[in-house]
Structures
1.
Amino acid sequence: MNNASINWFKYSSPATFYPLAGRLIPWFMAIAVILIGIGLYLSFFVAPTDYKQGEGYRIIFVHVPAAWMSMFIYLIMAFWAVMGLVFNTRLSAMMSQALAPTGAMFTFLALWTGAFWGKPMWGTWWVWDARLTSELILFFLYIGFIALQGAIDDTRRGDRAGAILLLVGVVNIPIIYFSVKWWNTLHQGASISVTQGSSMASIMLNTMLIMALGFWAYTIAVALSRARSIILEREMDSQWVRELQEIRQ
Amino acid sequence: MKARHKRLGFLIVGLAALGLATFFVIQALDSNLSYFFSPTEVAQDQAPSNHVFRLGGMVEEGSVKRGEGVDVLFTVTDHANSIQVLYSGILPDLFSEGQGVIAQGKLDADGVFVADEVLAKHDETYMPPEVAEALEKGRQAEVKMNGGTTP
């Protein structure tokens, strides 16, 4: 490793990661508040009404970013699961554990707002089509991961069991994403695609992207803060924790 | 070979096997995972025509006829085949001619689909009304230029 690049492995140790996370949290929280504030303002006051759905479509400004986050967070957790299983780093499992409640929250938010949109637009709160069902399975995966990891007293074994569950569940993510393409579903196809661009007016699209970035910043901030608590809990007996200023006081 | 390379190898092989298994399961379940059948699939007898199934497609322009009370008769089409649908009940707000729709019900002896539930299917387009209006004007101008043939 040359001197110019950052030594990433340095931050895989809880003792160095803990203060770094502490410094980053206020920044990401501030970004989250600003972006979500701007995003909500645009959603309610600037974005025009839709030609067919009227005002009710505005729920997508929360629904779509939440659904994206629910999938992204799972992928990041799966990435940490691989890291934990391959490199045996302690921090990896803590990161998955720290992200899980936020992932579950966004999945629930996506399902919930989707039901609110579905009732006036489709005429039903819920249908068992491929998109809705696979997103519900994602919610159960998050809950299952939290339960499994928490149920095993030995943290090393619990982490490993959780990581394997995460990796088995990762097949669900492409199923969620492509379900609207592979099968006939009640849920509409993606409005934004890498290959075909977007089928939304640009102000609507930008608002959605700002909300998504805000959700990202929020996720990073709360996950880091949760990771700090997990570090303290797990490394309670270590020398460096006992020497922390906030612990000694 | 280091221990961590071995673990990575196991993981990759395991995930590949899992992916393959999922692929086959999805292949096997393919027809069961679809939420509805299109009129063409019904015409080709791929739909379970002797019991309840869902029919999806577009409401054909000019086909909606209101009967007594909340009875409504319309045609669902996928531009290749079409099926008449009879429904008595309250239609969702988005239901209109030219709009996607999913109906659940049974085919009767005359080939009319008797629905007990009708859901509106929305597409992935979101735009302000002015844009929709402009697009519609453009489409009409194009139709005129082509001598009245619909695109």
Note: Strands of chain B lie at 53-59, 65-66, 71-77, 82-88, 100-107, 113-121.
2.
Amino acid sequence: MATTAERVEREAKLEGVGCARKRKEDPRFIQGKGNYVDDLKLPGTVFGVVVRSPYAHARIKSINKDKALKLPGVLAVLTANDLKPLKLHWMPTLAGDVQAVLADEKVCFQYQEVAMVIAENRYIAADGADLVEVEYEELPAVVDPHKALEPNAPVIRDDIKDKKEAGQGPRRHHNHIFTWEVGDKAGTDKVFQSAEVTVKQAMVNPRVHPCPLETCGCVASFDKVRGELTVYMTSQAPHVIRTVVSLLSGLPESKIRVVSPDIGGGFGNKVGVYPGYVCAIVASIVLGRPVKWIETRIENLATTAFARDYHLVGELAADKNGRIKALRVNVIADHGAFNSHAQPTKWPAGLFSICTGSYDIPVAHVKVDGVYTNKAPGGVAYRCSFRVTEAVHLIERMIDVLAQKLNVDKAEIRMRNFIKREQFPYTSALGWQYDSGDYHTALKKVLDAVNYPALRKEQEEKRKRGELMGIGLCTFTEIVGAGPTKACDILGIGMFDSAEIRVHPTGSVIARMGTITQGQGHATTYAQIIASELGLPSENIQIEEGDTSTAPYGLGTYGSRSTPVGGAATAMAARKIRDKARKIAAHLLEVPEGDLEWDIDRFKVKGVPGQEKTMKEIAWAAYNNVPEGMEMGLEAVDYYDPPNFTYPFGAYLAVVDIDRYTGETKVRRFYALDDCGTRINPMIIEGQIHGGLTEAFAVAMGQKLEFDEGGNLLSNSLMDYFVPTAAETPKWELDHTVTKSPHHPIGAKGVAESPHVGGIPCLNNAVVDAFAHLGVTDMEMPHTAYSVWKTIHKLGLDKR
Amino acid sequence: MAKTHISFNLNGRPVDVLAEPRELLIHVLREQLAHTGPHIGCETSHCGACTVDLNGRSVKSCTVLAVQAQGGNVLTVEGLATNGTLHPLQEEFMQQHGLQCGFCTPGMLVRAYRFLQENPNPSEEEIRTGMSGNICRCTGYQNIVKAVQHAAKRLQAAGGK
Amino acid sequence: MEVKLEKSFPIAAPAAAAWRLLSDIKSMAECMPGAQITEQVDATHYNGQVNVKLGPASAAFKGTLELQSVDAAKREIHILGKGTDAKGGSAASMDLRAAIRDAGDGRCELAGTSTVTVSGKLASFAGRMMAQVSDQILQQFGANFAQRAQALADGAGAAPAAGMAAPPRELNAFALLWGVIVAFIKGLFGRKNPTAR
């Protein structure tokens, strides 16, 4: 009989699920041997630099390339006119709209792509770009989505001016894109009419940018002899990109290879198809040489995937005990100049309708209007599963507003409204089926850990002394792992994901997935799933992703979908292998399959000690001694269509101290409890949470893409766009509970986005809470010292 | 544009390059000398992904001209390990999970290397300030600080090498 | 990016002399640092240029100046200037209303309201400094104007007075920046500082 100690040791050797094993990808990074797109040096590579519009809205009167073309070393200058014969001057977007690849007669946002200069090296290309002469006629710009909807607002999109539809339903104004509604309008209105208490609050999620440290870029290399195109690019979704490139270029997918090498952070910034990629590809096909295009930081902040720009009005109806009866939400969504949001095609407002949050709300109605403005297109980025940040922000602010109105404690009001553990699976008023949760336990654990009553007492005393201290709570529910193919697709391709696992004769493994890591540590964690499922040590499990020539088709990594979808595919593929292994083991042990039981890393004959075959032995047998009629080899593929989304949740608490005279806000304490179901690698989970919280801190306290009224982007470099350093970043305290997902093969839910989604409202609530006793119910983010001081000053608190 | 002949020591070995007067050190390191450890993150000296050590000081090589390295000593992340042995900082970044996407890591390591020579026994606060010229978007710095703390202890124990 | 400024400058010269300068568009424009009238198109239209270098952005604006109205009785003038940078990277416009007010005793005052709108690169990169820099530009304009008006009154004619520095060809960024910093510091200490007590 195997002893417990022996079994524990055997299990530990696998370094499977639950093990905080060190990351497999680290050795190359710490030695400077990462392989990012700009590190690539193919022979004969030339460099592309994009000429961009200095104006937010202007007609292009002429483009003169002559001077640029005369510069020695400049090989070509591409403009819309050059792309026209190829029908590539416009490209379709994921949201049913079109986007100009290179501006066609008109520019609609500052820094829009007007031309690309291709030259022998990056210096000459930049010189060449400076020599392209573009004559503009400036037009009035509109950057405020509310103003964009005024009757005589400037027409932003001449190309669709008269169209009644822009891919997502009827439009009612020349700058209107769509109206999206969900829920029971009549039922909601009725509850509001007779409610004991109602509250209403307007709020804004300002436009921000995920700003990964590596900008976007690519190397496109067309082999004229073979007619094959290889594109190395910073993409979170290489397979989808290949399909899009195939559709755009007319090349068959089999002649296109898209490779995502190491990616220096994505956070949603690297999901979309950008004009720079398309121009580089065209240039490579025309010139027959590899073309490299790498964004500058300015280009990155100014033109590729922003996030948010949601202008919300929330309303709650409740009884006098604070029990919520209905939720009503109206949103103006600023999508910029083209509707090129990267999100499931059927969801123009993403998964925003998760905005009933962690609360049992009987009825709700949500309406979102998408609007064009003279700002950059391509949103829904930033560590967030398609508008979940905005949704959580809304409900978590609203419940605080309600608490303030009723003078109920902000933790208490949450406890009163939480969906109870026994209500799961729970169907929300807006139609989502929450898989599992235990919100009361989570919040209670946090309140106990920080001694919440003592904090409130301290706050009360401080208020008496005129000091400003805020306590912020956020008890969020996320919706991640897009998603069930019946609900989610991108350009008609269902949002499944895939894994392909091959066990070699000696028991080592190669596995390939349709997802792509950008720092999440897939090479480490996927191996852990396989190790636990197959009983083979993760040390010998090699993970590969990101190369469309070798990896199975997958939809990529964003929206916290790798673990819920890719991880599930991995477990399922491994189980297919284990099923075959069971048959081989039965054959080897000469017993019926039913007599076997799985034990960590081997099959045992029930009740017969010593009669067993390890997975390593079975792997060897798979290549020389299989049952009659069975194929040799030991491998499997799984395309996993998740039956549902997963619903990670958490309870966060922040304590802030605000200087009454300067508005400077210090995060004294941040306690984050996350429940992401089964925890595959606690070390990596904690790292993800640290990072997500820091990005939340950035958004809540300092980040904003600021425009002047003419559409000039005022925060276009790291000089003006806040990215926290180690000096500003608070210390994070982490905690967890484990409520497994009932439908996920290993019970995991996904985690990387929770801290961002939950962290922003938590910090925002903390800042507003510092002023709650003075009747303040909202303050516009980001909470920079100046911005907070304005509230202080308005309230007259800075008088001595 | 006429090119200038530049010689300097890169990770202890003499190198010679021809570069235009306007060429940046980061481009010469990455494109001519195949040292792609240091990265370009912002072009404005804010992010520190391009940090290298020049004559015993941390510099942002995206705003240093290559000609300024003339006759100097340049250390990049590729030169941190000695004879195949990782530097304690490299070890600790791995042990403490001080990196995720890895893009900032080379700059972080080279900065931390210099910082620990400037201040061999730093407090957490001093680490946070001393490393504040380098931005990381993934880790939230907590584990980077931890890695530097652990490396400092190991270096102290080894006699401050 | 739009900046509105209201300013007045005391001038040690009679109102008539100052008005002569103000209504002489070419001479008046040259009081603006970096500005130059290159051509008079007709009675109310002029072509000109302004060179600006500001932090990372530089621009050579070429454009037109349009005299909207001149009221000699009230000594008021309304000018509209528009220009684009030769490379197409920035555009700027200025709506200026200026008047000479008699202060008696052989002195007068130049009072003006101007709205400067800048778009493109200059707005995007230097927007943060726009208000201060415009203020400085006007300050220099005021100083140059006062000096010329005085010279005019002293009988030196419309040409620059002997010994007076020719208007700089390019708006001097260093001097300007210096001015901005000094103004900022003055603001810091000159202002009633709520935390300092």
Note: Residues 142-157 of chain B form the longest helix (16 residues).
3.
Amino acid sequence: MSNSVTKNWTLARREKTLRQRAKIIQEIRRFFVDRGYLEVETPHRIPAPVPESYINAIPSGEWYLHTSPEICMKRMLAAGYEKVFQICRCWREGERGSQHIPEFTLLEWYRSGCDYIGLMEECEELIQTVASAIGLGDQIVYRGQKIDLGRPWERISVKEVFERYSPFAMGEALEQDVFDEIMVRDIEPRLGIEKPTFIYDYPAARRALARLKQEDRTLAERFELYIGGLELANAFSELIDPEEQREHFLRENENRQAMGKPVYPLPEKFLEDLEDMPPSAGIALGVDRLVMVLLDVTSIDEVVAFTPEEL
Amino acid sequence: MYTASDLRKGLKIVIDNEPYIVIAFDFTKPGKGQSLYRTKLRNMLTGMVIDRTYREGDTFEPASLEERTMQFLYKEGDQYHFMDNETFEQIAISEEALGDAKNFLTENLNVEVLLFKERPIGVEMPNFVNLRVIKTEPWVKGDTAKTDFKPATVETGYVLRVPPFIEEGELITIDTRTGEYSTRVKG
């Protein structure tokens, strides 16, 4: 049978992209191994996913498919592992769009003795190294936009991006409950356009598992990375106070209940281990999206072998 | 009743008592934030296009439209003429109201004409139509034939991307929901 008559042309024509995707993943792995990180594999099926207002886990028997490997990886930090990384599949219910697929690939890495600023630097180095390893220079093109990967990348606080691009100040947007809409409509499309952009210091209400800033308890040490308007990564200086973390989980579960969503059991063993966790920082980076940006692909469907609709 | 997670291209809903059709849709979610459903909606009466963003819990009334099977007869100016297969009554629909459907209409094709309060406002296409390629670059043998697209024009004037092995004069199947090439018709 010759190639020209293959029935599944959609799959056949992805071959070039899938080869490059494989190369990108190999280069990511090489980057971390070279830096003394330990590659780990933690269970995908867990009894208690992180309770977050807007992230829904897919049930699997009595348990759940993880939405991120963070809980287990942080328990490893607490047990004394200093630098760990993992590339794995994660599942989030109902997330399907041109940049979302319910089963996707996350790269997470964690480092003790580091804070979120340290991770920004490592993020820059990682993406620059991978880009160069697949034959790209510092100038890449994504959706017709030239983006310069030369370091340092742009760093703007969340407060500043609201001042710059939004009709409301950050606090006002939160009060009026339009924070997310403004992010999506007015802010995200303008981030990472000439250079990749880190936006950092999220309001405490959006802290997730980040620690609050010592000098300003209304802000959390959390950042997101954007390239060409696409959100690529989310990072924290990790919250290591078990009581504060428990309170936050309970609040998130209350929100979930108010929205009529399933409430998750608290990850008790994680909260217990948190007592031993050294000051650390951790980050989750969407591998599918990194492939999209590096290969100049606009739909996530084009960087995976199969979409759920094709199964 | 629909909820925001039912939104998809082609869905018809009522907003302020008027029927709207979703013409573009994307799911998005700012980091750790809530799910947002961004839509472009076309008012099926006026043709006006609006942008709306919805949240997970939002609900919609489906637009209930009458459907009648009609045959496409001919195009005159920007009016497309159809005939009711049962009553032989003829009606016309403007190019604007047809939207993407105009790319796939060939004479004698049966489609579902949509009526809102007796007024024809659009058509529902079959999911797949076969159209003949009238113009495309020839295939250079020896190409790997599975990597790249090339543009092709079909008999309605619509231009789309096809695999390199498609030749002029061939019949291809197009998915009318996405406007994309689906397969080549053998024979």
Note: The first strand of chain B starts at residue 2 and ends at 3.
4.
Amino acid sequence: MTAPFGVYLHIPFCSRRCDYCAFATWSDRHHLHDEYLDALSAEIAREVERGLPVASSVFVGGGTPSLVDPVRLANIVSSIPVTAGAEITIECNPESVTDTHIASYVGAGVDRLSFGVQSLSAEVLVSLGRDHNPDTVTEAVALARAGGIERLNLDLIYGGAGESIADWQHTIEQVIALDPDHVSAYALTVEAGTPLADDPSRHPEDDDQADKYLLADSLLTSAGFINYEISNWSKPEQECAHNLLYWRQGNYRGFGCAAHSHQDGRRWWNVRTPDRYIDLITSNGTVEASAEELDSSRQRIEGLQLSLRTREGVPRSSLSDADINLLDPLIVVTEDIITLTTEGRLLANEVAVRLR
Amino acid sequence: MASLDRIRNLCIIAHIDHGKSTLADRLLELCGAVDPREMRAQYLDSMDIERERGITIKLQSVRLDYKDHLVHLIDTPGHVDFGYEVSRSLAACEGAILLVDAAQGIEAQTLANCYLALENDLEIVAALNKIDLPAADPDRYAAEIEKVLGIPADSILRVSAKTGEGVAELLDAVIDRIPPPVGDPDAPLQGLIFDSHFDQYRGVVSSVRIMNGTLNTGARLKFVQAGAVYNAEEVGVRRPDPTPVASLGAGEVGYLIAGIKDVGEARSGETITNLSQPAPALDGYDEPRPMVFCGLYPVDGDEFTTLREALEKLRLNDSSYTYAPESSGALGFGFRCGFLGLLHMEIIRERLEREFNLSLIATAPSVQYIVHKTNGTTLTIDNPSELPPADEVDHIEEPFLRATILTPTDYTGTLMELCQGRRGDMIKLEYLSPERMELVYELPLAEVVTDFFDQMKSRTQGYASLDYDPAGYRVSNLVKVDILLNSIAVDAFSMIVHKEKSYSYGLRMTEKLKELIPRQLFDVPIQAAIGGRIIARETVKAKRKDVLAKCYGGDISRKRKLLEKQKEGKKRMKNIGRVEVPQEAFVSALRLDD
């Protein structure tokens, strides 16, 4: 079997910007949809011609991929060479998904959808600035299943202003009731330069988020999910292959503005804005904004730090005895490997910075 | 060589911000001493720190030519920490300009320096400055000066150093009223050094006033108090640029370069004389006596050697601080340093950081205590960690000050409250005028060196001013409060305090440290203790979450960089036992604002 290879497509458009988001996405450039999709297919065609490896996973993220014309997006996805049984995921916002979306996506081989649910408490959704309500999520999930998509991820965020522990418990329980095969739960993070950063009154508290993490883990585990990476839970054998690629230092190619790529220790990323991306593709220029080449020791540490986040863990020798002693309550040490306990996953940085 | 009756030697006595440097600028211009194209504000303040803080630390004397007279203007330091330097520069003068802000009136330290000048028989030429300000009230403050100093109100000049108004009249009054120096040009040489600074190219450059005899370039000189002999390599005057001359005669003021490498050999108050025909020392020499002590530690332990070299080098420039190596369980290796006062401490620390590119931690300032032990011996300590166990201590004495505060009467109540809160005994309370009050208190020095000055300023919107003199040692009920971090005593936070204040100190430090110490992987108790008795306790709860939630679109690089940054941050922490303490915690915890 050849090594896995991933392809990421970035769709940098949102109907409105969530005020905690620092990612490359725009709510005022919808006039660029067509040109952007043109550029995206051109870049893919160019790279296929240059021998782009056959992908074992494709992930279309954003932004909001479901905002752009589903037929055109499906055609672009179809143009990517993939292995038989490749995992192909598209991120969707529950409120923008229709029959047409599902049908077009399925036609292009898409077998997995990832819904930006965030919360199933109506008030919390308002406070996060989202456009959907809990019912929209139920409808979207039904729509996907009716259209033949079995693999579903529901993305959640915890720690938004005004979210009680009870709200969060309700969200998790409702998510479990929807019976997805994959759940991602992310701690709301204050990113510099966002409106949220400027409003300390809405900043999440570490202890509250820790409580919510432990609650989510316990409820999901009881419902048959396995935590395979700090923020990701799946039913057995339903891990997201594309996601695992990132944590395993695998190779992947990103297409679109601000997309990141990795090949054997070289990491690079594309220009940030869609306008610039379109211009460069149109003029047949390179879209790479910058790159870094890690020396072997940094590459090794990075590999350990990433692996530590997963249930695969790191070799026993990557921590000193003194550190193992200090970190004792946070790690599980077997003869060969070290993995994080549930509490330890919440303190992964503390462990990661001690890796050697 | 100038005849004595054509010479005038004077200084300017003024409070910070009352316009001394601006007046000096105008005088330089008026006498044509500085090319207008090269004029810059505060010409005589040579150090950056002086310009930034608006204070004069090192003295610059300048020779001006005015109407056939040589006028030597001797600048004086403008802060209570440097009282001894002020007294030496006054000894080089026959007169002084008393410069008072016409919108604020006289300040405590100006008054103290003025008294000092009168004790030295200096002729005072008083002037009210800033008469151009709308808030100026020269009549009122002239009356005040008359009442306080006995200088007739009608003799007080009115000037604006800013616009130049009245400056020529002031200079005329200087020539008129200040007597020429007295001295015997034919007697053996007696010169008074009233300032020295270190120049990296020339070595020590000293300001000197010739009292008797003549100082010739090339002469073999004896430095009487230092017991050293040097050659007068260069003798000159500042106009204000240094200009070499063949000799300086009795009554003149100039500079001397004698190949000296250490300012400690040419301290303020030193007498120089000819080796071949020596004269006795002049009166008034005094060794600088440090009053405030603290430990200085490099943030990075590897910089200990750099710090030692920096202290050695800076001392060539300022011999009034002391230093000796010490070690701290919490901070590693550093130096115990003694300073003339708090400002002096801040200045030295800032200069060490700025001029030698160091990053330093200063421990809580301390004064010098006299400990009488039960076995009959006594011990002088300036570091709380040297205090013997309580059962070996019979009693402790601490230094007191006699502090004079001048304030608008509105603030009398709040200042009395402040002084009483600082264990002060009132000695005097007197109206200088219906609006202004003089308060005299005896206060423990330790209560003044923390933040007394800042408190006084903030309680009075900056209107009150302070001067103080040492007032001997007294027995006090003192105890040492230790601060324990995860059960380990952190010597840098130990402090000797009055027993009645020990609880509040302990409480304040533990509360403060609770905010400053980041959460660790385990609960960290923070305790304050006297001897073995815990008097206050806080806990920094164990940290529960420190994790990067997600990876946007495969951006692993960002994640890695964040972790690398976190790792770097860890390196900058001081480990106290298992507790990681950021540098800022030391700095902020030791800043004892109430």
Note: Chain B touches chain A through 23 residues (CB under 8 Å).
